Amino acid sequence: MKTCAIVSVKGGVGKTLISINVARRLVDKYGMANKVALIDADIDNSNFAQFTGVDARIEITDDIRYKPYDWNGVQVFSMSLLAGRDKSISMEADRYVQILADAIECAEWKDVEYIIIDMPGTASDIFKACMEFFADTLIGNIVVCQPNMIDATKRILNLHQYYGIPVIGLIENMSYFICPYHKNPKVFHIFGESTVEQIAEEYNVPILGKVPLLLEVSKGLKRGEPYIPEKYIEPIDNACEVIIKEEIKKLSLLEKFKKMALEAIKPQVEKVLAYLLVSINRDFDIRTWKDKVNWKIEKRPIMLTITDESGRKEITRMVFRVYEDKVTFVKNPKQVDFEIVASFRTLARMIMGERKVGDKIVKFDPIDAWLNGEVKVYGIGYSPRAFKVFQNVFGNEELMEQIRNRYGKVLRRWI
Question: Are 115 and 1 in contact (CB under 8 A)?
Fold first, then answer.
C-alpha cells in the first residue's frame, strides 16, 4: 500500500480538486478500481461532498467501524459524508487526530493499494500527526501552489525539509486563465506570472505541471462533476505515474515511535538538566537576563516536563524558579508560571543545535522547535517570556558548548 498527501500551506488553492482528480484518474486510466482510497483530512472545511454532489452518509457497521463511501470505484472517507455537508465542525486538535486515526486504522477498507490524502490547508500538529500515521506507507507529498504564493509555498517546502518528508512534485493550480469568449483564445495571468519554475529550482523538486483556471471546471463543480478536462489533465497523469512508480520511503524520522528503555534514559536526562542548572548559576548573569525577560514574578516557578518521543509518556518533571539571582529547584509547588513540555530527543537537539535527518546532520533552531510544535508551552501570558527563555538560554552558544563538552556523547545519540 502506498500513500501520497496533497498539501498546501493554506486553503483555497485547489488541493481537493487535485486530490479528487488524482484518485479518479488512478481508477479510470490506470485500472485501479476499488484499490484507491481518498481520505478527506480537512475535517473542519471539507469540500468533497459539495464538489462531487454526493448527498450520502458514511455508515457505521455493526462491529462499530466506518464503512467508506464508494464513489465511482474510489473508497472515500470524508467528514462531510459523516456529519453532513452543511455541519459546522470545531474541535481540539487531539479529537481531530483521533477521528483520522479511527478512519485510517478502523475503517472497513477493501483491497486498498493507494491512499490519497486531501490535507487541511495548514502546517499544524494535524499535518505532523497525519505524516506519523502514514509513516510506513508514505511515498511523498504533492505540493499544490499558485503563482502569487511564493512565500507560502516556500514555507510548506521548508516544513517538509524540517521533518524530512519527501516532495514528489509541484502542481501549480490556477496557473493561467484562457478566456473562452475570444475568437483566438487569449491567456490571462490573473494571479501573476508563473513562479513554479523558480521555486522548483531553488528546492530541487520536480514540476508535475500547471493546471489553468478553467470555466469548464467551475461549471462542472456545480453539476457535481469535479473533473479537469482531458486537454489539461497532463499534470494529474504525471502525478499518477509518479505515485505508481515511486517506492515507499522508509524515513527514520517518520517511522512510528519505537519502544525505548525510558527508565534507562531518565537518569541521563536528569543529569543533563542538573548540570544545565549548575552551569547557568555559575556562568550566567541572571540579573541581566531577568531584565531582558522582564521577569517580575520571581517566586513563581517554571515546570519543565520531558517526555518520550511520542510526547505521551512522561520521563521526568522538574520545577525551578529564578529567585535572588539564582535558579533553584522547587519541590511540590502550589502554582507555576508556565510549563515547558519537550521530548528528550528535542531537548538534546536544542542543546546540540543540530538534528539527524536520514544520513545528514542539519542545523536545529530551538525557536523552530517551538514554532513547529516540538516544544509546547502552557500558561497565561507565557508567550513573550517563553520566547526570551529560548533565546537567552538555548541561544547562548557559550553555555550550550559547556554542556556539549560534558554530555555531548550522550546527547548526540539522541538527535
Answer: yes
User: Looking at the whole model, is its pTM more than 0.90?
Assistant: no
Angle CA 365–368–369, to nearest 5: 90
Q: CA separation (Å) from 406 to 80, 184, 272, 276?
A: 55, 73, 9, 10
* Phi-psi label, residue 311: left if phi above 0, alpha if psi -120 to 50, beta otherwise: left
Residue 151 backbone class (left: φ over 0; alpha: ψ -120 to 50; beta: rest)? alpha
Cβ atoms 47, 160 nearer than 8 A: no
- Using DSSP, how many helices (H) and how many strands (E) does the chain show? 15, 18
117 CB-contact burial (10 Å; exposed 0-12 / middle 13-18 / buried 19+): buried
Name the CATH code of domain 2-250 (choices 3.40.50.300, 2.170.150.70, 3.10.450.50, 3.40.50.700): 3.40.50.300
Report CA dihedral (62, 68, 70, 71) to the nearest 10 degrees. 150
Closest CA to 310 of 241, 262, 368, 382: 262
Among 86, 15, 25, 13, which Cα is nearest to 244's?
25
Name the residue ranges covered by the structural domains of the chain.
2-250, 254-412
Q: Which three cell numbers stand for residue 212?
A: 489553468
Chunked into runs of 10 residues, the chain (415 residues) has average pLDDT values of 87 90 93 90 78 82 84 87 70 70 80 89 68 75 92 86 84 90 82 91 93 90 91 94 80 40 69 77 65 56 81 81 74 78 87 81 81 76 69 79 83 82
Radius of gyration of the chain (CA): 25
For residues 308 and 297, the answer to whether their CB atoms sit within 8 Å is: no
Which three cell numbers, joined as nine digits, stand for 383? Answer: 508567550
Q: Distance between CA 143 and CA 8 in Å, rounded?
A: 6
pLDDT value, residue 253: 39
The residue whose grid cell reads 479537469 is 228
Superfamily in which the 254-412 domain is placed by CATH: SCP2 sterol-binding domain (3.30.1050.10)
DSSP for 364-392?
--HHHHHHTTSEEEESTT-HHHHHHHIII
pLDDT of residue 393: 78
